[in-house]
Amino acid sequence: MTHRQRLTMIVVTLVATLGLSFTGAGAATAAPSAKAAAPPVTALATPVTGTAANGGSFAGTFTPTTFTTRNGNVLANGVLTGTVKDSSGAPVGSVTRNVAMPVTVAAVTCQVLNLVLGPLHLDLLGLVVDLNQVHLVITAVQAAGNLLGNLLCAVTHLLDGTPTAGGLAALLNAILALLGQG
Predict the structure, then answer these.
(1) For the chain, what percent of residues have pLDDT higher than 70?
(2) Is residue 101 within a helix (H) or strand (E), and if so which, with residue range?
(3) Contact (CB, 8 A) for 104 and 20
(4) pTM for this structure?
(5) Is residue 171 left, alpha or beta, with left meaning phi > 0 and alpha meaning psi from -120 to 50?
(6) What is the overall mean pLDDT for the chain?
(7) How confident is the model at residue 83 (pLDDT cuts 50, 70, 90)?
(8) What is the pLDDT of residue 33?
(9) Which helix (H) or strand (E) holds 98?
(10) Could you tell me which of 91, 78, 2, 93 has the C-alpha nearest to residue 45?
(11) How far apart are CA 141 and CA 68, in angstroms?
C-alpha cells in the first residue's frame, strides 16, 4: 500500500468517524477567487445530484480542495463538475465550478452505561427467584431537540477536547495537503 493510499484511507476514515457529510447541491455558492485553489484530491470526490423545476437534472461530483469556517460553521471549498440534462434526458452542457458547501456533523451517540449482570439464583426461605443474564445498555443521542441526550453526551465527552470549527477545518486542510503531495 502506497503512502498516498494510506493517507486517503486515513482521511476517509476520519470523515466517516466524525460523521461529516456534504449537504445537497442546492446549498452551493460561488467560492471567492481571492486565492488559487489547491488541486483537488480525486479520492475524496462526492457524488452530487439534483433536479430542476422544469424536469431537468444535474449529476456530477464535488471534490474538496480546502476547508474554511464562516460564522462558526465548517465549509468545504472545492470543484463541482458534472453534466446538466434537460427534461428529456438530453445533455445541455457541462459544469466545472469552484463552490463552497456546508459540512454537517451527523447525529452523534455516546454510550452512557453498559451493565451486564450474570444469571442470579436466589432462595429466600423457600421462595426461589431465578433471573437469567441481564444486559442493560443506555445510549444518548446528540441532535437538535434532544436535551437529555445532548447533556449526557456533553458530560461524557467533557474532557475529550472536541475541536472547534476552525480547528476541524485546519485538521482537514492538513490532511488534504498530505494527500495532495503524492
Answers:
(1) 69
(2) strand 91-105
(3) yes
(4) 0.49
(5) alpha
(6) 75
(7) very high
(8) 44
(9) strand 91-105
(10) 78
(11) 27
